[in-house]
Amino acid sequence: MTEADGTPADGSNRPVFTVGELSQALKRVVEGEFAWVSVRGEVSGFKRAASGHLYFAIKDSDAVLDAVCWRGVAGRLGTAPEDGLEVVATGKLSTYPGRSRYQIVVERLELSGAGALLALLEARKKALAAEGLFDEARKRDLPYLPETVGVVTSPTGAVIRDILHRIEDRFPRRVLVWPVKVQGAGAAEEIAAAIEGFNRLDAGRPVPRPDVLIVARGGGSLEDLWAFNEEVVVRAAAASEIPLISAVGHETDVTLIDLAADRRAPTPTAAAEIAVPVRADLLERTQSLEHRLSASLRRQFAERRARIDGLGRGLPAARDRLTTASQRLDDWSERLARGARGRLAAQRQAVGRLRPLRPRQLLALKHQQLTHAAGRLAADRPTARIVQARQASEALAERLARAGRAALSERAGRVETASRLLESYSYRGVLARGFAVVRDQRERPLTSAAGVKSGTALSLEFHDGRAAARAAGKPKPRTAKSENDGGGQGSLL
Predict the structure, then answer these.
(1) Are the CB atoms for 228 and 255 separated by under 8 Å?
(2) 375 to each of 369, 372, 379, 384, how far by Cα in Å?
(3) What is the pLDDT of residues 91-123, one digit of tens each?
């Protein structure tokens, strides 16, 4: 009980707080005593508010601690919180008076040890592999001699110098460097943005689009290389339309970008060797191919020349062929001249015969010739020929039909005769008269009892079907006892 002025009713001098005053006092005490702490535990109940703030809990087997990360800090976290992740959260302890709960305001979040990193890496690897981002069928071939090489790496350090020197030594090409952070907060986003930026370049612009990309970083611990295991980097590498070479760490370091890239290089220097060939080797190979091509052409020309010479030796001499042709030409020329003279003489004689005729007589002669020709033409009209051909065809068709019917009747008679003869020779007629065909197990007919052993399975064919039987032993000589006992069945054969 308290008095109206707020003092305790029992007369003590204890101060009486309001709920808000007590909450603020507790807040000052907690924040003053725990200004900066680090807490290890498992992330649980993670959610991202619409405002961008992160809310989750850090728990172990004994207790649970609420955690909040403000939007301005969330973008700088080196590790994004996930449920079940073992982390070390660093920040200041505070309270939330609205619910009378204390919490840690996270300023930095790190994975707790390499074991947690490896577990997260394995889980992420399985999830991305299930989407097909690591399939070999997605990987593309690298260009043999790219015009432009794009490099995503830190602008400082030995990596970029090694790549540039190696490309210069092997085959000088144009190199475009997209500087990024390769470690720490924001590194994964910069690497992914660089890969996407190179892919957005247009080939027709002053800055050409690279023909091949190299994403490189020197060696380091698992934590140092963690940016290349982030999902945003892996997806950017898998979606790159430009063939990509991953050269992260040393030969024993394997990151998720190595699995999504089209080619993995053990070191950045090896990536430069993969990207471009050796110019001296290429020139030497080109010269070797040129020498081989020249030698092959010379050899083919020599072989063709020898073949042509061999074929030419089998041909007759050109002078002899011209001599024969010249003689044949002289013969034809003489025959042509004689023919022309004879033709001219014949025409002259015809004209001489017509000269005594008068024009009237000549016209009558020509009229007679035309009349004779008209009669012949009328006899040879196409219609008359068609009629004659049709009549001949109809006569032939009728003859063919009569011949076919006669031949068919003859063949039918012969078939009927052969059928009756075959039926008379068939063994089935014999079976109908009470006989049977005995066959062994292989369906072979048996013609004698010799060689048939006792107990052999037999097949009996009658005229109306088959029956099975078994061969018995040879019958014993009959005695008086056997004649009177009336028992037993004799042998079938």
Answers:
(1) yes
(2) 10, 5, 6, 13
(3) 888 777 777 777 888 888 877 765 666 777 888
